[in-house]
Amino acid sequence: MSLSVLEEDLPVSLDDKLSNAGAGLFFAFEKRIEALDKQLRSFTNAVRQVGSSVGILSSSFKLRERLTKISFMFRENAANLYPRKIARQAREALPNPDSKHRQRRAGIVKLVLEDHLGPDTLPAQLESFAEDIATFINCLNELPEFTDEPINQSMRSFQDDLKYWALCLAEYKTQFRSPAVQRYIHDLTPEIGDHLDGITETLSMFIETGVPTIRFQQQHSLSNLLNLSTVATIFSAVTATMLQLSCKSTGHTLADLVNTFWFSSLVFSMAAAVNSFLGLTWKQVIYRSPAPRIPWWALIWIKQTPLVFLVLSIACFSAGLMLFTYSSGQGTVTSTIITVLTAVTSLGLAAVSTRFASERWILIQHKGQKWVEEAISEMTNCLANTGIARTGRISWRWCSMRIATARGYLRRLASWIIKRKQPRELLPIVEPAQRPRPRTRAPPRPLVYHQEPAAFMPRPAAALSVCSIVTENPASGPAGPPDESTRTRHSDARQRFVNAVRSVIKLQATTRPMSPRRNSLFDRFPDPVMSLPGVRVTSPIDKLKALDISQEIATHQALVRHLQFSPNGKYLATSSWDRTSVIFRVGESFTTHRILVHVRGFIDQVAWSPNGRLLLTKLTHAVKVWSEDGVCKKTIDRQNTVKIIVWLPTGDAFLSVEGSEVVKLDLHGKVLDTYHLGQVQLISVAVTPDCCRLVGLGRSITSPSGPQPSRRSRVEKRIIVYNIHTRLIESQVPFANDIRGIAIARNAPAVLISLEKGTPQLWKLEIERDRSRAGYAQTSRLNLKHTFTLEGPVDQIVGPCHFGGKDDQFVLCAGKAGNIHIWNRETAALLHCIRPRNTPGVGNLTCIGWNHATDDPMMFATGNQDGTIRVYSTAPLDSASDDESYLERRTEGDRATIYSVHSGG
Known about the structure:
The protein is an alpha+beta fold. Among the domains are: 202 residues, no CATH class; 337 residues, Methylamine Dehydrogenase, Chain H (7 Propeller), CATH 2.130.10.10. Helices cover 43% and strands 20% of the residues. The protein has a four-stranded antiparallel β-sheet with strand order 1-28-27-26, with no helix packed on it. Strands 2-3-4-5 form a four-stranded antiparallel β-sheet, with no helix packed on it. The protein has a four-stranded antiparallel β-sheet with strand order 6-7-8-9, with no helix packed on it. It is elongated and about 130 Å long. This is WD40-repeat-containing domain protein. It comes from Boletus edulis BED1.
């Protein structure tokens, strides 16, 4: 067995695991930024086909520049956290988005990062990033031909989150060089990356569907303007031709009117043609101002005047043509027919134009929500309620009478002109009025059954009780194969050989000058077998491995919400959703001591007093005080919702977490004090052993009028250290992950943070002098000591994590699937993992609690969804049982190793 093979088999240290995970997180974020930058380049190339795209091009360039700055700042932050994994980037090596193109066409200088672009400017950069996104959305929405709701929604959501993060980070401006704030900024990269991925996908869809749609609409408008220009040009030629017949006839009124109308028609037609070409050019130009930035009169002149001038030209030409029949001496019949036809066509043209203008005006005013008929009916109803209604009715009657008279004259004139015999082509006109008969018949609908509405209603689901799950008690005691001792002996011999080789490797590493490899787990923490004294180090590890289910208790009929051992180790209290709390007597066989029945509400938590003589049970709006014998001494009602209860180490009072306040209550329910921990919605609190400080966890609360996180983003959490005596917040640390609970060790300044989806973290509470305060008063500061890691994927953690062992030397947490992980508190090494058995119901854990009263035997309990409580314990050292004895579990190889260590041989 070579040394190189053994060196490759050495496990990676915890620092290397965390560094690799953090560096991988940043590199994934950097790839997302690069993907969005690439998509923005494709977007700018595709949008050049669209007219009036200079605003979009400019905003996309600014957006890419901002992405470069954001990427630079996040790289600097990650390089501070993981200097061995992530290298810093020189400012001169930063890419400039399309610098050559922008210098050649737009005259914009190259991207230059400011010298003061430090970590404390990150909130301002995020705020500017939100403004750049808003500018990009506004420029994109200025194209009237297409509106992409997915892009608007994704970018608006990202904009809101950026403003929210900028607001939260602004409170830590002086702490951007602290590892805690840097870690919070680094933890924001997954959420920012998710937003970037969403924008990248929507931009890709916009390139595929939006740009062709906008291009089609603009081509359609261009073709309309081109057709309008062609008609205006042809009409100008016709008007000019007719002017040749009338321009010589002057001197009397009719001839002058004819020339006036036709010259006016020629002017309007030429103006229509010229304005059509102007609008055609305006729509094709890329580098022009978008529509909202152009004055209203310019837009009206470009868009509306071609059609208006053409209509006026036709009206003037028709009027001149009608007068020309009289001025040129045409017959009466000809003059009359031309007059009637001109009146009819002019009336139709005026009616259609009025209808078109009013419909467009109404649709623009009501944004397409109302039609012309609805607006007219509303206007009529409004007029009916006023004094104008009578005048309107009289005017309407007068107009109706005049229209009827005119209709009679027109009918007589038509009967005089048109022959009696109608052509055959006019006969089929009556036919469509008789054809719609088959359409009036309603088609049969045999598939719709209105008489049975209950058939479409969802059926109620069958109620399933949680307590109906049957659990089987597994047989206690090991059942190993007959050659177990032989295998253990061979594995111990191999382990001793590996340890010896490791010692040689460490000796060689120390002799090398400036050895860079000092990140191995064995370089930081000594091997248990080679430590002195060996028994004290190896004994807890072996005892942890000997933990097994010693008893199963099926007292509850529903989910076990919380459990806790009494400080003296005599009792175990549990709470369940069956509205009962049970006190068990701890012993070789757990027995039910008292059942505490609660008439109303669910019991979410139980809490033993420091002396173990009183028990608190927490309900939604009340706290009950019980004696160890199960006697209810007091029921304390609270108006606000009680989130969690915590005993003070003195045992004379307890704390009730209610919203943003922590209320101090005595055992009679009297409010002794109230502590405000800032704008946070508290989740959990813990008290230091000296009763001087509170460490609270909560979600930050922002003003309702301020920026709020989107549904995709997580609310910022904070870890707050509050001084009870001075009533000041001494320090606060932002937190990105979802937090479940907090615990403080009894004999060390260690704070354990439990996460919703992740392994726990251990923070160190340091007390130091505050130079900014008078007299250099003491203050506190939180520093992350280490994050506990697992070899495999992280299971969903249930319930708060806890300290274990008599001296809180362990950290344990339970996974929902049934895995129970136990770490060393100081070294963060995973000591043992208890896997769930294949017995039905062993998984689905809900809570866990350790018995701190003794280490002989070690003991903890777990609660399950089916109401079962399982007790894990080891055999005591003085046990006479061969199966449960701790000494009998040791192999002969281990005894020889321990003896050699003690004897110094």
